[in-house]
Design a protein that fits this description.
By secondary structure, this protein is an alpha/beta fold. The chain folds into two domains: about 1-145 and about 315-325, Glycogen Phosphorylase B (Rossmann fold), CATH 3.40.50.2000; about 160-305, Rossmann fold (3-Layer(aba) Sandwich). About 40% of the residues lie in helices and about 15% in strands. The strands form three sheets. Strands 9-8-7-10-11-12 form a six-stranded parallel β-sheet, with helices on both faces. The protein has a four-stranded parallel β-sheet with strand order 3-4-5-6. The chain has a two-stranded parallel sheet with strand order 1-2. Helix 6 (about 175-185) packs across helix 11 (about 290-300). It is elongated.
Length: about 325
């Protein structure tokens, strides 16, 4: 998709250093200490100058901390991509109460947008219900995976293997999974959990697994390179996505594309993908007994996930974005 949009004359702005054609590196040094919010502040102050300097005719902005302060009208059409709203996030994460201060700015940025792309129907509905955005202004284009990268392998599953991939932090629910796992080990002593990812809670989770007596059943892999993810998903009998909250849940569709069923929480984006029993099942966040039982059910009655729905494939994603951004 990058090459197709590039051919249509699009420029890409980010603080990344790379050699991609038509990528413009923006130096956010003066506000770098503010991280993503600093990027948003820079956009708020510099958008008009950048539009004029590069002769931009249309702008696609990804919201969250990187776009929440762009609450001003711009002289060109603005297509805003919404991964989730701050109001959605605050409903599930009381500890991030400070983000409530951004809600009025975020609401204003959506009101000023020419068009909005939501990454899930749940996020689309949140924009309508929470911010009063007109439904006809919003298009759902689901996040997607490249099925040439994520697909079933001939080697098959490793018995009693469970996989988690994601950040090791509170929002991703890793502690919920670790605390639920002793009940799985008690029923299936040979079970093994592979935890892929890094984050602020990594050492705490290592210590917790030792304290719970399951250290021999849990391997912390650290960061897993993209080229190794498909093999990791393929070895699992189930992948667990125990997040407190997800606006979508890219790990869910990566695992499904690899032919592996998923146990996830009843969070907006995850629930939408796992509706029914086709690809897996959901449990309420915090219910350890339910999570342990769902994992055990997948291990005791293994079956592959059916092919990924077309709406989650790269081809549909590409077609949707080309319609919104290039038309």
């Amino acid at each position: 998709m990058y090459s197709e949009i590039q051919d249509a004359g699009w420029l890409f702005f980010s603080p990344a250093r790379n050699a991609l054609p038509r990528h413009v590196r923006i130096d956010f040094a003066p506000v770098r200490w503010l991280k993503q919010v600093g990027v948003s502040l820079w956009l708020h102050l510099e958008a008009h100058r950048v539009i004029e300097k590069f002769g931009l005719e249309r702008l696609n902005l990804h919201t969250g901390p990187g776009g929440v302060l762009l609450a001003r009208r711009l002289p060109i059409p603005v297509i805003v991509t919404c991964h989730h709203t701050y109001r959605q996030q605050c409903r599930h994460l009381a500890s991030q109460f400070w983000k409530r201060i951004f809600i009025p700015f975020e609401k204003r940025s959506y009101e000023l947008a020419t068009r909005i792309v939501a990454v899930s129907d749940a996020t689309r509905q949140a924009l309508i219900d929470d911010y009063g955005i007109a439904p006809e202004k919003i298009t759902t284009i689901f996040n997607a995976v490249d099925t040439t990268r994520f697909h079933p392998l001939a080697a098959g599953k490793d018995p009693d293997t469970v996989v988690y991939v994601g950040r090791i932090d509170r929002r991703k629910g890793i502690e919920f999974l670790i605390r639920s796992f002793p009940a799985v080990v008690a029923r299936r002593p040979r079970v093994h959990l592979y935890v892929g990812g890094k984050g602020s809670h990594l050492e705490r989770m290592r210590a917790l697994s030792r304290r719970l007596g399951i250290a021999e059943n849990v391997t912390f892999l650290g960061f897993v390179p993209d080229q190794d993810l498909n093999a990791l998903y393929n070895k699992a009998q189930c992948v667990v996505v125990p997040s407190v909250f997800e606006g979508f849940g890219i790990t869910v569709i990566e695992a499904i594309a690899a032919g592996t069923r998923v146990v996830g929480t009843d969070s907006d984006g995850i629930r939408e993908i796992l509706a029914g029993d086709e690809y897996g099942r959901t449990v309420t966040y915090g219910n350890r007994a339910a999570l342990a039982q769902a994992i055990l059910d997948e291990l005791e009655h293994p079956r592959p996930a059916p092919p990924l729905r077309d709406q989650y494939r790269l081809e549909a994603f590409r077609a949707g974005y080309l319609r919104e951004l290039v038309a």
